[in-house]
Design brief:
Elements (H helix, E strand, L loop, with lengths): L2 H7 L2 H13 L5 H13 L3 H12 L3 H8 L9 E5 L7 H4 L20 H18 L6 E6 L5 H14 L3 E5 L5 H10 L4 E5 L8 E8 L9 H10 L17 E4 L1 H12 L7 H4 L3 E5 L9 H7 L3 E4 L1 H4 L20 H10 L3 E5 L6 E6 L5 E3 L2 H18 L11 E6 L5 H9 L2 E5 L3 H13 L15 H11 L2 E7 L3 E3 L9 H17 L4 H12 L1 E10 L2 H17 L4 E2 L2 E8 L19 E5 L4 E6 L5 E10 L6 H26 L2
Parallel strand pairs: 2-3, 2-4, 3-6, 7-8, 7-9, 12-13, 12-14
Antiparallel strand pairs: 1-5, 4-5, 9-10, 10-11, 14-15, 16-21, 17-18, 18-19, 19-20, 20-21
């Protein structure tokens, strides 16, 4: 639709005049004005035109700034943004949609809608068309339960077909890790899952994967980004029928393959035969129940589900936030556990890549575990058991590796060091862990096995990695993401549920509660405590504040913090750093500050939420002498550290 026709629908000169006036009075950002006008030209949607006119006429400048202060750029993880605005225009509301959502996603260059999803899928197709030779590219599509997720997935499948790509679309909502698994199983060229993970219900996202089942990394990321960002219009030309692709529906058969692969995570399956445990599972209105509930029952657990949260509902009506790291998100599970005398509550976020856990302690109370504690228990149990089983020994231990992010607890490093297992630290984001797995896979000579590496059974794969490369024993990040093998190349809450269930069975076989088992780990390796804090600043103004605050830590590095001198600073934005294997670490907006008194903190802006995140670390190596004293000492030290950092942040933003 050309500019002339647009003028027949809305008065462009009137709109431009009002936008210019708002810019001159400081109510509207210049970038917002430019993006609004470009958006009107690039979109044929009547909803777009009517919504912008409505917001301009009602002088909703703050809303317009939030929607148009930038163009939603395709990054290394894809796209993420609001699908429902703070102000919902009459055109967006339309006839309404399922679960009380508007009929149409919110209009905006900085929001997630068909315009931006269309740019993303077309850019990926353009890149793949130049990358894949001699056949049509193949893309797997999955989605979670969020508003518009199914709509976006079906839309992407149709665009794929129109532009000569064979699409494999899941019949219903599925988890992010299952998308990763399916890309590898089908030997697809790429995968996309429509999800915003644990973000608020008004958000959604377009998460992109490459042919290894991992999120896109160099050089493919920049190639795709360039193609996506070059697209300025939602209009495209459909290929002739004979050159078009196809749409294949994927379903139960792939579910079974995935579930069978998860069963291989069990190190001592017989443990589950000799113990009994009642588990409460909180699906939090997401995708996890499709796999976790039937699989846990197959493994012999009595599984009770929170019925209200089994309902797949993008509003997430029973929680303030669908994030399993928050105790409030698991409260209904806790209540059911108390009522039914269950020992464990497991909760997963909408796309089931993050898992939170609440366990019963020796006093009979339900205790929330942190992501660091959950990961450390699984890492300790798995490494210990691999040595007990003889998989790992003095001769091959140096060929095994634990991978964690820099902001994940150093307790896992201490455990790995004790057993002689190497540790590699990566930047935040599971794609960096996946990149290491790709490196280890590539290190196995093709002559050592027949067919495709992905078809090897777990034992054969392990032996090859120990002989020729690196055997991955466990990986994770503090934000409730875990992985136990290399079959999936992203964090996997479905697999984590299986791994934690085995830890629970082991604890029961030893006559201990999970917290008692954790205390045993502390007594052996020292008490480690981490605290995650964040400052939230939404919208265009918030994004500017976050950027300014983040950059201040590089330009004005602290020299003394909470009464302790700074021992060292690692500035990932400017320092030339390499990891434990000598591989260069990409530049990132993150700074680590080590204090002389042993405390450490890190600061980084979130890549997915309007937050700047703070990570606080403390430990006491003498925990075995008096654990409770160590806990009190480290806890008070971190509380004081955050109090100082929060006040300092306010000063830095003045």
């Amino acid at each position: 639709m050309g500019l002339k026709l647009l003028n027949n629908i809305i008065n462009m000169s009137d709109i431009s005049s009002k936008l210019n006036q708002a810019v001159s009075t400081g109510n509207l950002l210049e970038s917002s004005r430019e993006n609004i006008e470009a958006y009107l030209v690039g979109s044929e949607s009547q909803t777009t035109q009517e919504s912008i006119a409505y917001l301009v006429d009602s002088e909703s400048w703050s809303e317009l700034n939030d929607r148009f202060f930038k163009t939603l750029a395709f990054g290394t993880g894809g796209l993420r943004g609001r699908t429902i605005g703070r102000v919902i225009t009459p055109a967006e509301q339309g006839q309404g949609g399922v679960n009380d959502r508007p009929e149409f996603p919110c209009v905006g260059s900085a929001t997630l809608n068909f315009y931006n999803v269309g740019r993303a899928i077309r850019g990926m197709i353009a890149y793949l068309s130049g990358f894949v030779e001699g056949r049509k590219p193949r893309i797997v599509l999955a989605h979670d339960t969020r508003h518009f997720s199914r709509d976006f997935a079906e839309f992407c499948a149709e665009v794929c077909k129109d532009l000569g790509v064979d699409a494999y679309l899941y019949d219903k909502a599925r988890s992010t890790p299952q998308l990763s698994f399916t890309v590898r199983q089908l030997e697809a060229d790429a995968g996309i899952v429509l999800t915003a993970s644990h973000n608020p219900s008004h958000d959604n996202g377009f998460k992109a994967y490459f042919n290894d089942g991992a999120q896109i990394t160099p050089p493919h990321d920049q190639g795709i980004i360039d193609e996506v960002n070059a697209i300025k219009s939602e209009v495209y030309a459909t290929l002739p029928l004979e050159k078009q692709g196809s749409v294949t529906i994927v379903g139960e058969e792939m579910d079974r393959r995935y579930m069978d692969s998860l069963r291989s995570l069990l190190l001592q399956p017989t443990l589950l035969e000799s113990v009994s445990a009642k588990v409460v599972y909180a699906n939090i209105h997401g995708t996890g129940g499709h796999i976790i509930t039937p699989l846990m029952k197959e493994l012999g657990f009595e599984v009770l589900t929170v019925a209200e949260q089994d309902v797949q509902d993008g509003r997430f009506p029973t929680v303030k936030s669908p994030n399993p790291e928050n105790a409030s998100a698991l409260q209904m599970g806790i209540d059911l556990a108390k009522k039914e005398s269950a020992d464990i509550v497991i909760g997963t976020d909408p796309d089931s890549d993050r898992m939170g856990v609440v366990v019963r302690n020796a006093a009979g109370e339900m205790q929330l575990l942190t992501g660091n504690q959950i990961g450390s228990l699984m890492a300790w149990y798995r490494i210990k058991t691999m040595f007990d089983l003889g998989w790992l020994n003095d001769a091959n231990r140096e060929s095994s590796v634990l991978i964690k992010t820099f902001v994940t607890t150093e307790l896992q490093q201490a455990i790995a060091d004790h057993y002689g297992v190497s540790t590699v630290n990566t930047l935040t984001g599971f794609k960096f862990i996946a990149a290491k797995l790709g490196k280890y896979e590539a290190g196995i000579p093709q002559a050592e096995y027949e067919g495709d590496y992905r078809d090897l059974d777990e034992e054969t794969s392990r032996e090859l990695r120990l002989k020729h490369s690196k055997f991955f024993v466990f990986g994770g990040e503090e934000s409730y993401g875990y992985l136990g093998n290399d079959v999936v190349r992203d964090k996997d809450a479905n697999g984590a549920a299986v791994m934690f269930a085995e830890v629970a069975a082991y604890a029961q076989s030893m006559g201990k509660t999970i917290p008692e088992l954790l205390d045993d780990v502390y007594k052996q390796f020292g008490y480690y405590l981490e605290q995650g804090q964040a400052l939230t600043m939404e919208g265009a103004d918030g994004a500017a504040k976050i950027k300014r605050l983040s950059e201040s830590y590089s330009s004005h590095k602290p020299t003394e913090v909470d009464g302790s001198r700074v021992k060292s600073v690692r500035d990932f934005s400017v320092d030339e750093l390499v990891d434990e294997e000598g591989d260069p670490i990409a530049k990132a907006a993150m700074i680590f500050v080590d204090l002389e008194d042993g405390r450490t903190f890190a600061v980084r802006p979130s890549g997915t939420e309007p937050k700047i995140k703070y990570y606080l670390f403390g430990n006491d190596a003498s925990a075995g002498e008096d654990l409770e004293k160590s806990k009190a000492k480290v806890t008070s030290g971190l509380a004081a550290l955050w109090n100082w950092l929060e006040k300092d942040a306010q000063e830095r933003m003045k």
